[in-house]
# Entry
Amino acid sequence: MSAATALPLALTLGEPAGIGPDVTLVAWTRRAAEGLPAFHVVGDAAFLARRAAALGLDVPVRRVGPEATAATFAEALPVVDLEMPVVGAPGRLTPGDASAVVASIERAVEEVRRGQAAAVVTNPIHKHALYQAGFTHPGHTEFLGDLAGRFGAAPDGVAWRPVMMLAGPDLRTVPITVHVALAQAVRDLTAERIVTTARIVAADLTRRFGIARPRLAVAGLNPHAGEDGAMGREEIEVMRPAIERLRAEGLDVVGPLPADTLFHARARAGYDAALCPTHDQALIPVKTIAFDETVNVTLGLPFVRTSPDHGTALDIAGTAKAHPGSLIAALKMAAAMSGAA
# Structure
């Protein structure tokens, strides 16, 4: 699809008090140098103009409809204005901004559903601030899973099941359990969860990334993958049966493998994605290897969603210290995955 005919990307506002607005504005200034696809921000145009001025950035901001994004993008930052003014003082959370943050996500997803945008790219949210305003989802991923219902039933007729993947230039990782306490993650690590997650990852690596036969590696939960039961039996009683089921279905899956030797360069050459039992087990290696280039991708949805791999970083918001690399990578990956590149 050519740049002239491609649908734009819908970029959400994110937490206004954080660095999302900062990296959005800087990314737009680098649009030509980075070859960025056309995107618009779903949010408050006046707020973004104020933040640009505060950062000393020459970024004209223009209110547009989604259809005018491509024609506007070269000259001004297009903003689909929600008509929900936000305060967003850098580093200082404003409870009243929460409704605009949530509305931005909902509107971006709706634009994709209506065929007005090719994909959703989300700026980081501040979960605690949203919880105080009544937000009931553990995070972005779970909220997007609910919004996926607007696209109709999932292929299995039940519900869409979002799966988080962190994707960098040299490593992709998937946490099998996500936003739960570590003790709860161990309880949640069932054979069925492993099988379902692996199926979704394999399907979307083919559908979204063009990998004909994805190779999946599964990390063990315990030290040395349990050492044949000496350091835990989850590998024997839960993980191996799940992997055997997946292999019987024809998927290329190995494991459970010791996590401490799974992420060096030679090991990474042997798989396309590593599935890890816990959140930090998956996120630490990929962020360590390429923090500024890693993208948070949600698999298992009827639409493409990417996001920077960092948080709101309230401590550096408004200081011009935030690095836009992860957002730039997220925009490029969303375009490639959705055919908008």
Summary: The first strand starts at residue 9 and ends at 12.
